[in-house]
Records
---
Amino acid sequence: MKKDIGLEEVNCPICEESAKHPLHREGSYQMVRCPSCQFIYLNPRPTQESLFQFYQHYLPEEESSIGSWQKMMEPVFRRAIRLLQRCNETGRLLDVGAGFGFFLSEMKAKGWESMGVEISQKGMDYAKDVLGVKVYPGPLEKAHFPENHFDAVTGFYVIEHLPNPMAFLKECYRILKPGGLLLLRYPHTTPIKNLLRFFGIENRLYDLPAHLADFSPGTIQRCLENVGFERCQHMIGSHTLPHHLGKRAASSLFGNLSEVFYYLSFKRFLLPGVSKTVLASKREER
Ligand SMILES: [Zn+2]
């Protein structure tokens, strides 16, 4: 991102509290914790206009990097497909932040009517021209989908990039059919940051300024319930396979370890610091 990027001061995106406790600084960026709801978010953060420009160059350019991106997400996608198909064999799916459209393409092959939303023109073109899947220009709120329209909405590594996560969740709720599923995949970085800081190890794990927040299972659950979602199920949901050998080894090790802890604890213990998946349902009409 360019150095002359526009920044703005914001209140807590979840509860609008203006007080904040500094947590971590990287150049002009600072992660803070809301003293009222404990949400961890970036403040100051890039303005909406700078974010839109940033995402035009966020996805990789070369064919080989696009292939690595697909391989990296494959285990997470496979697990998500299993989770969604456990409830509905087929249906209508929306993937928000669809990237190149790989998840949509896999769901289409499984018989789902699949469409996406994406703000990167490059991602949209690839999804349409190479994979033949339908992707609308984002953000989600501007796509104006009908109410009660989708059987499932997914967002892989999306919610931490959004300036207004509550508006996003409300829109997901509106466009889902009653009983429809929302599946979100998100990083959970703060515990690992704290651990590394304890050992004096510098790192850029927050991925600033791309990530505007760091969710925990607790904050995700509160946000989902505030909007009306129910039956929240938290899980590890597999792990990514980055191209870089060291990162891949770490992701496999901690991903597998966290899955072992999760199942040994009868699906209660979620290892802090690793990415997580949450599945929630829109309330059925009673
Ligand atoms: Zn707050």
---
Amino acid sequence: MAGGATASLQFLGAAGGVTGSKFLFSYGDDQLLIDCGLFQGLKELRQRNWAQVPIDLRHLRSVILTHAHIDHSGYLPRIVSKGFNGPVFATPGTCELLGVMLPDAAYLQEEEARYANQKGYSRHSPALPLYTVQDAETSLKLLRPTKVGESVEVMDGVFLDFSRVGHILGAGSARLSFEANGQKRTLLDSGDLGRCNRRILKDPEPAGMADWLLLESTYGNRMHAKDSEIELRNLIKETAEQRGCLVIPAFAIGRTQDLLYTIRKMEDEGEIPAIPVHVDSPMGLEATQIYGRHTDEHNFEMTRLHDKERCPISSRHMVIDKTPEQSKSINNLKGPLIIISASGMATGGRVLHHLKHRLPNSGTTVLLAGYQAEGTRGRLLQDGAKEVKLLGEVVPVRAKIKVLDGFSAHADQGEILRWLGTFKKPPRTTYIVHGEPPAASALADVIRERLKWKVEIPKYQQKVELT
Ligand SMILES: [Zn+2]
């Protein structure tokens, strides 16, 4: 397009909150979506998943996914079920993880609908899933694996390249390059920013440059504790000594691998006794294998260990619980033991029945090792709830609840600022997204103060011209 078309951006998610990442980029008559995430947490947010698709799919040419987490990818089968069939660009690691995650998300949707129909609690009859396993399988066929650093045309006159950001396997920031008013322009979505010197994965790459920046702010008002490994070590030692049970709700992807890697390291170094670690997450196990395969993303230490025989992402007494029966039989086990199970914010998955069984017991410790979004059970526990509703029952909380945010896969305020320090010049505007309001505004303030950049916090559905 000579001189370039006019470009604009609309914030269809992760604006005013952390979930539902969806940024609609318009260029002339064409549109593309950067991330296609599900809303999670509060009911009023989740209802947005069910509303009419907020995009005219006739104009949507392609989708770009920064990483595989469901709050960035889980809405894709929904738009596919409504007729989208364009290409979906993501890194090879992300594509492989999506092959596990999207069918699983769809299965959960189908299960929920089946359960609602059985119990007759849906207002709709019959209750329908948000999308089906078939929709997820169709979505996977649209994936176009795109290597970090490779430049691809994602729609007429618009080029994409990913750079590595740590966070989880395959995670990238997405940069769009296009022409506007005869000038070459770039829009960069940070995606979820990871951290430096972490376990398993390489560090985030320097940002380079961008005319417009979308910046995540999950921990924009926080600094991570530095001694989380010491705390984990103490918790495991305590669990072993008191023959207790340590339940860790963990994202199947990222957190589960980080925890296993760290526990193995502590065992190797003789810091903790090797007690049984039940990994009760079929998806977590598949993801662990995918982590092992993508050697190009491994950091130095992981590469060194991986060359030896045993996979460094496994503890000594790791027990793999594949079937639902094996999962249930964990209920009969006495401590000491560790249960790592999804989901990470206790919104669903097998960890629910472990919590139902173990929360009333004072010999249990529940470790919340990741971000707990508003409206989730994990957040209620973190905030000190005395009882929680689980699988249709009110369950008293007598277990100890511990919070460890040092295992977070998100950069904290200092780490975000450090990444911004790698920009060659300030973006024209930085849009703060993917944070709850206090985090977003604290980060905006500190960027204005220290870097003197122009910063805005967009509202849900707000549209901005990129001129
Ligand atoms: Zn993420």
